[in-house]
Amino acid sequence: MYTKRNYNFWMTFNWSRRPFIIGLLYALPIAALNHFTEIDFSLPWQPISVLGISVAFYLGFKNNSSYDRTWEARKIWGGIVNGSRTFGAAVNSFIQTGDKSEDLKIRQRLIYRHIAWLTALRYQLRLSRDWEHHEDRVKGLYSPIVCEVYFNDIDREVSNLISDEEFQGYKPKANIATQMMATQARELQALHDLGYFDNFRHMEFHRLIAEFYADQGRSERIKNFPFPRQYASVALWNTFVFTALLPWGLLSIFSEDTDAWHIWLTVPFSGLITWVFFLMEKIGDYSENPFEGAYNDVPITSISRAIEIDLREMLGETDVPKPIAAVDGFLM
Amino acid sequence: MYTKRNYNFWMTFNWSRRPFIIGLLYALPIAALNHFTEIDFSLPWQPISVLGISVAFYLGFKNNSSYDRTWEARKIWGGIVNGSRTFGAAVNSFIQTGDKSEDLKIRQRLIYRHIAWLTALRYQLRLSRDWEHHEDRVKGLYSPIVCEVYFNDIDREVSNLISDEEFQGYKPKANIATQMMATQARELQALHDLGYFDNFRHMEFHRLIAEFYADQGRSERIKNFPFPRQYASVALWNTFVFTALLPWGLLSIFSEDTDAWHIWLTVPFSGLITWVFFLMEKIGDYSENPFEGAYNDVPITSISRAIEIDLREMLGETDVPKPIAAVDGFLM
Amino acid sequence: MYTKRNYNFWMTFNWSRRPFIIGLLYALPIAALNHFTEIDFSLPWQPISVLGISVAFYLGFKNNSSYDRTWEARKIWGGIVNGSRTFGAAVNSFIQTGDKSEDLKIRQRLIYRHIAWLTALRYQLRLSRDWEHHEDRVKGLYSPIVCEVYFNDIDREVSNLISDEEFQGYKPKANIATQMMATQARELQALHDLGYFDNFRHMEFHRLIAEFYADQGRSERIKNFPFPRQYASVALWNTFVFTALLPWGLLSIFSEDTDAWHIWLTVPFSGLITWVFFLMEKIGDYSENPFEGAYNDVPITSISRAIEIDLREMLGETDVPKPIAAVDGFLM
Amino acid sequence: MYTKRNYNFWMTFNWSRRPFIIGLLYALPIAALNHFTEIDFSLPWQPISVLGISVAFYLGFKNNSSYDRTWEARKIWGGIVNGSRTFGAAVNSFIQTGDKSEDLKIRQRLIYRHIAWLTALRYQLRLSRDWEHHEDRVKGLYSPIVCEVYFNDIDREVSNLISDEEFQGYKPKANIATQMMATQARELQALHDLGYFDNFRHMEFHRLIAEFYADQGRSERIKNFPFPRQYASVALWNTFVFTALLPWGLLSIFSEDTDAWHIWLTVPFSGLITWVFFLMEKIGDYSENPFEGAYNDVPITSISRAIEIDLREMLGETDVPKPIAAVDGFLM
Amino acid sequence: MYTKRNYNFWMTFNWSRRPFIIGLLYALPIAALNHFTEIDFSLPWQPISVLGISVAFYLGFKNNSSYDRTWEARKIWGGIVNGSRTFGAAVNSFIQTGDKSEDLKIRQRLIYRHIAWLTALRYQLRLSRDWEHHEDRVKGLYSPIVCEVYFNDIDREVSNLISDEEFQGYKPKANIATQMMATQARELQALHDLGYFDNFRHMEFHRLIAEFYADQGRSERIKNFPFPRQYASVALWNTFVFTALLPWGLLSIFSEDTDAWHIWLTVPFSGLITWVFFLMEKIGDYSENPFEGAYNDVPITSISRAIEIDLREMLGETDVPKPIAAVDGFLM
């Protein structure tokens, strides 16, 4: 997530200059041919204009849907924040063993496993998928595939939170976060059986676990079900068709002018309009996958850290980690 | 569901080439008549352009609604994932007979029936409906009608999960999945009556059953209530009217040009614009029915399998089935 | 609800041919006057085109809202399906008198009253309202007003479900369905007082009743609060203004052509564009009221029947009614 | 709320004729100047057309948002209906003192206070706000400000429902409805303390109170937070700018015609397009505030009455008030 | 929030005059060059018009999203109102120590801490963020950064509500509001342990705390996650590209006219269209951040005050603070 007011023009342009350049290079021979030969290659502008407006609608629909995906992803992680705080407050008030230091130990264990779950979920969500923009992954932050590096990264982060034995038990499982939460559920039942809280409170804990599963599952839904590729592809190929016809249509307009050199204006104009359309196409494309480990991601690392700080402070800890800061205006 | 970044151009084109070809064939005699006779058949472009923009709006509305249907279907199955995990965690913590092996047997029975319910639901959802695209069904995956093959398919998949006797009891019922869940409810009451869990926990189980019924019913709503055919038909006939007028309008534009051969450009241009409009029309049309057993389906087989793996791993099983893999980029 | 893939062209056209014909008849004298007199009646096309695009937007907004009404109506009835199944499962597991045949009798009584409630609600929803399309009501299915026929129809359908005495008690009430559900609530309290289920289970029943009231109220909201008539009227009059100007504008375009007879093309062209715009106007208009007893209704008769079948099968009945079948492709 | 199928044309036109007339009066001297002087005042049409389409989009966005406000308001009051019925059913089944006549007295007291709350809320919601259309308030129905008349109106309506002493206690409070509901909560606790219902049932009552507070608060949100004035103002001023440029642009089109008198067509045409645009602007504007006491209001008086009838009939009363009828097609 | 019916034209214009002036200044030399040199600098209008319409779509999408952010913010704070009233009613009915004056003291303590939480949340939400419009902050109302002034402001407001000791404990915490609510949770558990209310009621309190955490977290989500800057930047740069091409395109139109002086009309026309487009761009931009301490903010100070009044009146206090009044039509 970018945290400054606007991407400046050159940043925007640099990121998206390919279609501009290709637009120029494509229009150049067309203009040249028209200028140096006698043959009229031009196409009438009117139908191309209807095409352009239709494509702009379609891109609007796509941008809307992509934005909804990003915004929903942020909502889900907002939900995780809220559930985690409620869980923290519940753990700190509901659990009573009669022995303050035992209370603290149990509370810590539950809250630390919760932070471990956040960590595992975060890593799982940033594994790479076929339809994502691998070329834009922030280097070194997350492993793109399940491998030894991946497990080491998670292990390093959770080693202070759960026992190594517990972690090793999760490694062969298909979905680590799911099994962590199941452990949490079993432990809560065990604590209840020990009489540390009653049925009413246990059921509230159970509903929080249901909520965490729901938020995890919602994140995974956005991760695993891309903006349907048929819709995305039509956006791409429609933009492509429109911009492919563009310079031929511009020719007919510029050739109406009396100044013969005006024909060359086809080239920059083509580049510019091609750029604007592909910019609108790309901006949606690059916001479709809010967990791909790239710069426009929903900042789940930073959100997880904020949750960790709040929960540790509820436990009375003072030596809490610092919030994640933006680097060059990007917050991950 | 397609899992690669984009359908490539030829894949897209091949899938939708019919309107392109028909567009060509329709425009050809029109251009020829105009060229070889003296009569001016052309229609003015301006009103056709207003028509085109209006039709593009309407298609935008249709695409939006179709997308919402697909996305809602995915959300519902995401909800089934979340509910199933919570159910798994609850079954594994709440049920306590005092005898570990008895615990496991009961837990298994409940979870296996849950997987059987998923299977039955999945098969029911992929029976065919009048308004679906039967020509695009993936061959052999699902039976299109209720018949012996259909029952055999389900039987084969659930034979390890529920007793044959139980399965035979479901066969005459109108809705197998509904009755399976009702059995689940009766069994939970019986287990409660045996004292294996108390009222609080029973009520949580009951609410999960209500949730599963809700998600089943939501899937069936999308299955059984198509995008209203009056809206779909207007999209189709409007696109048809626009593209039928198209070559006559293009004639008037190309005949303004001095080069007489330009008139023939009407033909490819007609084909192209017809193609773009019908592409936008079809893309929505083919995403309306997310459970029709075709390539753009929400991948419910794969989702069900993922649930099965998670639930079996919660039971401590290690010999779990593999996740469903995409075939040629398609995940079912 | 129409259940085939598309309304065919002539079906669509027939249903909406009035604006086409009026468009023709209106344009004819205009073209004739222009042709046979020397006076130029034409209006410039450009502003009319801006008007047309603006009206197309507005119709898009209206179609969207109408569709949302239909879809919400279907969602609500989907909710009734889900709640009813949960109710069925609850009734069949929760109620225990200790005597199996007594159990069955009570369960039957509750479930039959539930089906009676569905029936009453269904009839109430299909009474006619001032703003509905009375000319399109399916003949003989439902009485349009509260009268003896209306009560007889309901009585016939519920006579096997509740006692005649109970039914007579409802007749003077303003809202039969509401009072039926209130009876259900009182009976559940009485059954609880007899010790047939405990507080936990009673509260679940109570929440289901709250849900049924909510779904009933939501249906009534859509029934009783039309798409605001000010918005609907503006759509109508805007389309009217646009199509009234249309032939005058087309005149100016066709009179540019050298072929004098082209002026007559104004007539079919006017008819066609008028038809397309009114088609978009009407399609929303005829989907606004999903319970008006007409062909595009949400199929609440068929949904109610499906619920009845599921609930009776849960009771173990085998002599259940058949599902409602579509007639000529229409499902009510 | 208007209850007929459509506002007829003249009703619509009369209501919105101001912009038409001003459009005429504004265009007249412009056309005259152009006709009688030699100076060409015309502006080119093309950029004005882009402006027109852009403004039409913006109005579409505004109409959409206004409609959402009205529809949400209706949903909220639908929610109040549903909650009230559930409350009625709960009051009539849950409360058991052992003495039938005492039961009835208590049930009546609770339900009557509920109707009093509806009345107070209704009056509060129809106090006037700075941004509302005061000129359109239905005369005499509701007092626009808090004053003696206002309190007398409420007092008259609630005098049969709660004791005068109780009503006097509410008068100095900032929000009468809020305090009424708080009294309801205190009374329910007192009834519980007397043993008339147990904890389970008390908690259901408490959740209903939470729901009523939520629906009250949602109504107040729509009442107190207008469609943001910055968005509304931009719609207004954009429409204004477009229509101010309109006749100058039309001049350039009509002056192309050979018939000199055509220049005068600028005048009616200007009026007409100005009218269509301001009609679209006004229709949203007049649906923004669904509780302003004007003709397009959500009919909360009628809804409240329907609730009152249902609740009284649940109590077994037969002497219930009549439903509110529409007056001249308007239901309040 | 602005509370009058419309921003008047000059207010609107003044606020947004920069693009108008820059539009003028930018077009002036272009028109001059064209007039005084022989070179034709003009660009054809048609493609610029397609660009304009596409940009207008994109701005529509952006305005829609910004509006949704503001409206959601208002909904969240409406939720806080509703939850707070329910909390007030619950505190006043549920807590019973047996000693009326002790009851009052405890109720007061809980409600006052709730108001303190509202205050802290309000201050936190109005700290400034990188992407906000700092130039528009209302002076002196809120401190833009965490500093001594900030703590003093909060301290001053909460000093009558919670003990100084309690407040000092919150100061080192990352999120004061979160920890206040955690204290509330702990105190409620302690009160329950003293027997002042039972489990049922405690759980209702717990759910209210979960709700308050949810509403706090939702506010923070809108505060901390801006409208994605990539979307915002594309809106800005697209508008910029369109308006940069604008005067060159207008030149070609005005130079068609026979009156040579018409070329100068390019200048005001450019200014005007530039202004309309940037007005639509800015209006969304300035409604994106509903908690930035500027004039279009959701009025959280006023809402908090209204809650405070309602809650104090529930406690029976008569010496309650006045509602916040609008200043110059602005309510904060």
From TrEMBL, chains A, B, C, D, E:
Subcellular location: Cell membrane
GO MF annotation: an example: chloride channel activity
A Pfam family of this chain: Bestrophin_2
Topology class, membrane: Multi-pass membrane protein
Keyword entries, A-Z: Cell membrane, Ion transport, Membrane, Transmembrane, Transmembrane helix, Transport
GO cellular component: plasma membrane
Primary location recorded for the protein, binned into one broad class: membrane
Family named by the database record: Belongs to the anion channel-forming bestrophin (TC 1.A.46) family.
Protein name as it appears in the record: Bestrophin-like protein
